[in-house]
Amino acid sequence: MTDLVNSVNPGSDTSPLEGRPARWRSNGSLLLGLSILAIVVAMAIFAPLLAPYDPYAQSLPNRFTPPVWLPGGGWDHILGTDQLGRDYLSRIIYGSRISLSIGIGTALVSGLIGSTLGICAGYFGGRIDSVIMFVVTARLALPVVLVALAIVAIFGSSFTVVLLTLGGLLWERFALVTRAATIQLRGADFVTAAEIQGATVPQVMLHQLIPNLANAIVVVATLEMAQAMILEAALSFLGLGVPAPMPSWGLMIAEGKAQILFEPWLITIPGAFLFALVLATNLLGDGLRDVLAPESRN
Questions:
Q1: 187, 189, 184, 190: which is closest to 213 by C-alpha?
Q2: In the chain, % of residues over pLDDT 90
Q3: How far is 280 from 292, CA to CA, in rounded Å?
Q4: Three-class secondary structure of residue 155 per DSSP
Q5: What is the pLDDT of residues 217-250, one digit of tens each?
Q6: How far apart are CA 243 and CA 215, in angstroms?
């Protein structure tokens, strides 16, 4: 968390996506993460063009067709078919939309909640800071998976419920990072100058604090995206994530677990794609931290 706070550059109006080109090009983690993520994003955007079949179309005579590299496989179904004869490649491609939507949506919701609380706590201090930190402590005491399971079980399993649930549970890192950074910034000369010139509190936050917190917020957002995608897959695996027949990678793993001894590729293929996406997101966050805050590297 200290590294994230150190990414704040007081008084700078530069965008979090700006930086020295050489530093961006020389960061292997950042380039690898961006490359993998770009592939997955392209899959999600162009899914109707890339998918060879309808991901929901069933063909019971073609159940459990193995991938092309296994005996009995063929190029008609490169990654095989599942227990209902649905093309696995098509479901993998469309599943990227769900994972990315959950990750990005959760980061936006949790970022809005956590950053707002963190900035208010760091700027006002006193009782407001104490109350917000109590709320953060209470949130940290709650087990995310168990609370998410309870909420989804009560309100039903749907894409919207899962997204809002994860967004409402994964905001504490935003709050802690922005609070610590705001405490550093509130005594800066440019903040004091804005207050002396008559800027209101919202103006100070919008024009002075948030632009200088953007670097840290972007890095935290990538980490929360990865965690949200893992949690969505876990909820889907337990049967309380996005409902069937949506092609969620976690749901595909859950549906294939009954055949793990006979058709292990039903689990390993979606598991490998989920691993690659989460790894890419974490590499992107690590690379952004190094690029935006090179002084924090050991």
A1: 184
A2: 33
A3: 18
A4: helix
A5: 988 998 899 889 888 888 888 878 888 788 888 8
A6: 35
Say if residue 267 is exposed, middle or buried (CB neighbours under 10 Å; 0-12, 13-18, 19+): middle
Q: What is the pTM of this model?
A: 0.83
* Contact status, residue 66 vs residue 36, Cβ threshold 8 Å: no
DSSP per-residue string spanning 197-229 = TT--HHHHIIIIIHHHHHHHHHHHHHHHHHHHH
Residue 285 sits at the vertex; the CA angle it makes with 214 and 101, to the nearest 5 degrees, is 85
Task: Name the 3-class secondary structure at 81.
Answer: strand
Q: What is the DSSP letter of 66?
A: P
Per-residue model confidence as pLDDT tens digits over 183-213? 988 888 888 888 888 888 888 888 888 888 8
Domains, in order of start, for the chain: 20-296 (1.10.3720.10)
- For the CA atoms of the chain, what is the radius of gyration? 22
Helix (H) or strand (E) holding 241: none
> Do residues 229 and 102 touch, judged by C-beta distance below 8 A?
yes
Query: 18 — alpha (psi -120 to 50), left (phi > 0) or beta?
Result: beta
